């Protein structure tokens, strides 16, 4: 099986890749595929793809800045949901096979963000020689806002409708929706919150007009 790259339009028709000069897909192996559904914009999307990898980017994604995908590890799987926006994100899956990252719908990513599902090197117990930093899936729910400079590491779960504060280090699973998560390492800072894509002025105008 050959490598496949396809950009699909609104009616599932194929779009010429030449229409997106900022898209650079570098296949390093075989039997891999990259599918992008009806992108709003691709300013700069660069990917390095290994053997038997699957990269899916959902409908109406906006790469307004850059999205770098290092999926050179064999059998890497990346799924990005619909209507996500990326200012500056690097996804790293470079060493061990069967790594997986899943991002939900309507997520907002700021700049200088790193997401990785493996440490690439081993930490082990001196007595047993057992590895202590086994890689694991990263899953980001729907409508999650990731702030500037956030690092998201292996075995992480971010629930729906959450906000991750600037410069946070996320290293574990969180399970309650509608939270502000932040710190090094990250913890829940506030519960029962929601967030809106508009700035506070536009948001207040909108809710005032609904009253």
Structure, described:
- This protein has 211 residues and is mostly beta strands.
- 5% of the residues lie in helices and 39% in strands.
- It is built from one helix and 21 strands.
- A hairpin with a 5-residue loop joins strand 1 and strand 2.
- The relative contact order is 0.09.
- The mean pLDDT is 95.
Can you tag this structure with a few keywords?
211 residues; 8-stranded mixed β-sheet; 13-stranded mixed β-sheet; flat; single chain; 39% strand; mainly beta
Spell out the blueprint of helices and strands:
Layout: E1 4-8, E2 14-15, E3 23-27, E4 33-37, E5 41-42, E6 45-49, E7 54-57, E8 62-71, E9 77-80, E10 85-92, E11 100-103, E12 108-109, E13 113-116, E14 138-140, E15 145-146, E16 151-152, E17 156-158, E18 163-164, E19 169-170, E20 179-182, E21 187-191, H1 200-210
Parallel strand pairs: 1-4, 3-6, 4-7, 5-8, 6-8, 7-9, 8-10, 9-11, 10-12, 10-13, 11-14, 12-15, 13-16, 14-17, 15-18, 16-19, 18-20
Antiparallel strand pairs: 1-2, 20-21
Distance between the termini: 58 Å
Helix content: under 10%
Structural class: mainly beta
Strand content: 35-45%
Tell me about the largest β-sheet. 13 strands, mixed
The number of helical runs is 1
Element string (H = helix, E = strand): EEEEEEEEEEEEEEEEEEEEEH
The total strand number stands at 21
Instruction: List low-pLDDT spans.
Output: none
**What does the radius of gyration come to?**
18 Å
Principal-axis shape = flat
Question: Mean pLDDT, rounded to whole units?
Answer: 95
